[in-house]
Amino acid sequence: MVVGALPDATPAVVPVAPAVGGAVVTVAGVDAAGTPAHPALAGALAGAGLVVGAARHLAAVPVPPGCATVTLGPVEPALCRLADAVAAGVPAVVLASGDPGFFGIVRRLRAAGLPVRVLPAVSSVAAACARAGLPWEGTAVVSAHGRDLRPALNAARALPAVAVLTAPGAGAAEVGAGLAGWDRRLLVAERLGAPDERLTWTTPAEAATATWADPHVVLSLAPDCDGGMRADNQPAAAPAEGWALPESAYAHRASMITKAEVRALVVARLRPRLGRLVWDVGAGSGSVGIECALLGAAVIAVESDPDAPVRANAARHGVDVRLVTGRAPAALAGLPDPDAVFVGGGGLDVLAAVTDRRPGRVAVTLAALDRVAPAVRLLRAGGYAVEGSQLAAARLTDLPGGSLRLAATNPVFVLTGDLTRETP
């Protein structure tokens, strides 16, 4: 089972009613890996009264003489024909590439309430990895077919091994362009199973300027990654050690680090997950960005100090955080648009530059009370609904003789701007 696939926006699965007259829709994979068809396909075709598929699929199998066919273009007319066939008790066959239950047409058929049985072939991702001789049990699989490309890109930015199912306009060139600044190598597998099949190892920059034949699959790998499982056997799971880690879990300078109590709230407000891009502006130790990366988000840390320990901390926690060295707001120019931003350093000009990029959520920490009201006004002027709180934690500390006392940490104001709700 592939773990870490992004959720999609297809309709919820509808419970399947019993087929009238025993008729079902047989969904068969035929060619993604160039392997022989499922042995049950010949019998299903022989008894079919309707066969649906792309032109290349219909040409590749022995459709019985006189059997009605529908060549796939728009899916809705084919769904109507299939529903009519099932209602009339006429067996039907749908042909698809590879494993039709893997980001394929099975979901659409079930959502339409059609009874299905599936005869799978090898999926395109399994075929691409097999051609390259790579394991793929730790590879997260995401789709850019009929979807926004950004979540798929952010998965490839965040995780060491990601397979992207592509579509025209959301293929290897676009993936390569979107991975500029991330250290990745790409395997582009074009037209798997066809006579002109081709596998190409390339860099994101080279992929962005090349022309690729459809259909193709892109495998994105971090350096030294072969697609195998992480040590904890979970490619995109929550971190085993949790989050809001103690300051001792990070290298930092002169206690310049977001304290654990504050970090817990900030990370919760940023809502990091696989498919989202988070900026950590004024990153310092990088603790906020690293904990977002531990929860699956792609992360860009922006820090003016070239000697800040962001890279060392990210390596210590086994995550890939892209570090941009420079002073905000100038350093923000040209970065991919974020879904959420943490502003841990800089003035109102940095916050204004962030809101100009329209991330869905912005979290800001402030130590000085006189900066709170101007920041709230700026966020509201940008269309953000604002919530704020002051965190003032006191930690248990040992005293001689076995007694305990409370040691206060510096109070911090946390502001959250939410673009998804109307400003009060």
In short:
The protein is an alpha/beta fold and 424 residues long. The chain has helices at residues 41-46, 55-60, 75-87, 106-111, 124-132, 149-158, 172-178, 204-209, 260-270, 287-294, 310-317, 348-356, 372-381; strands spanning 25-29, 50-53, 68-71, 92-96, 116-119, 140-143, 161-165, 185-190, 198-202, 216-221, 277-281, 298-303, 321-325, 340-343, 361-366, 385-391, 394-398, 404-408, 412-418.
Task: Please give a structural write-up.
The chain is α/β, with parallel strands linked by helices and 424 residues long. The chain folds into 3 domains: 22-122, Cobalt-precorrin-4 Transmethylase, domain 1; 125-221, 2-Layer Sandwich (Methyltransferase, Cobalt-precorrin-4 Transmethylase, Domain 2); 247-418, Rossmann fold. 26% of the residues lie in helices and 23% in strands. It contains 13 helices and 19 strands. It has helices spanning 41-46, 55-60, 75-87, 106-111, 124-132, 149-158, 172-178, 204-209, 260-270, 287-294, 310-317, 348-356, 372-381; strands at residues 25-29, 50-53, 68-71, 92-96, 116-119, 140-143, 161-165, 185-190, 198-202, 216-221, 277-281, 298-303, 321-325, 340-343, 361-366, 385-391, 394-398, 404-408, 412-418. A 7-stranded mixed beta sheet has the order 13-12-11-14-15-19-16, sandwiched between helices. It has a 5-stranded parallel beta sheet with strand order 3-2-4-1-5. It is elongated and about 90 Å long. Mean pLDDT is 88; it is low at 1-21.
